[in-house]
Amino acid sequence: MYEGQQLRTVQQHILQEQTRFPGATGEFSWLLSGITLAAKMIQSKVRRAGLTDLLGSMDQTNVQGEVQQKLDVYSNEALMHCLSLRQSIGILASEENERPITVNFKSPSAKYAVIFDPLDGSSNIDVNVSVGTTFSILRRPEGEDSTDVEKWVLQPGATQVAAGYVVYGSSTILVYSVGNGVHGFTLEPGVGAFLLSHESIKMPSQGTYYSTNEGYVDQMPAPYPEFIQDLRQGKLGRPYSARYIGSMVADFHRTLLKGGIFLYPPTEAQSSGKLRLLYEANPIAFIAEQAGGIATDGNQRILDIQPTTIHQRTPLVVGSQVEMQAFANAVPAMAESVN
Ligand code: P6P
Description:
Number of strands: 17
Low-confidence stretches: none
Strand order of the largest sheet: 4-3-5-6-7-8-9-10
Radius of gyration: 20 Å
Oligomer: single chain
Helix content: 25-40%
Strand content: 15-25%
Structural class: alpha+beta
Mean pLDDT: 90
Largest sheet: 8 strands, mixed
Bound molecules: 6-O-phosphono-alpha-D-fructofuranose
């Protein structure tokens, strides 16, 4: 089955990566193992959601005002349970919770905050479309800010010590980075382990897909419609195909592996964009940059944005060097068009 291949589990890989963290005593790998355990629990429910009473909504809404799917609630509880057992974690923050949860906050061993979207794209669950989990890991600030929950959580994405996502698709893949490249692990259900399947992922410098919800084109500010039209008309040297799943993690995973560009622009309905900065755009941008891609909010680098609120939204444009440079060159037109 794996003749001659060197099988490496994500735990082995994390331990090797762990050596990059001065002073880390295996606590970081223990932290990440909490995420992989929760991911296995979530995927086992996602895979049989139709068979057990997990489909459908909870007839309640979350802090986003979105109808909570039953799997959202289960996924959030799985991550909260697995991660709260890690002594190195001081704060857990989730899309599903209005406020961050402090866990062993006063303990000197609590060095990290984990911020996550337990089940991104959950509105697609009932129609069996890929969904995902995203996570972002921030170190406790130094000095007087070290006891300030908000200061700990509201750090720019560039300060992330690790980030990643899990795609529950045709297979279950965990993609993560601790700042030393991007690596992907595929869950082997027969073994129950995530095995290294995509070592040192590099985003192609140009792709052939663009990914955006074209139903909003008439609501998008310049230069988004014109840029999308340029892609369609082959202005970047080749005609592009459109691919849009409606699950950010799945749409980004394709962009990471195949290249191209994903855009969730501001719209009339969502003037700051729809995606959340802390637990969607930041982890995605961290992974994109680590793989050689670029991620902006249409104007500035995502990872440079100073967050002001935990659930704040941002436009997101992320993808390959060629497409992202072409988009950046089009942006001055945006300035002209609003003057
Ligand atoms: P729209 C899922 O609800 C999500 O937050 C992202 O995963 C996805 O990219 C986006 O919303 C889809 O939004 O407006 O295109 O349906």
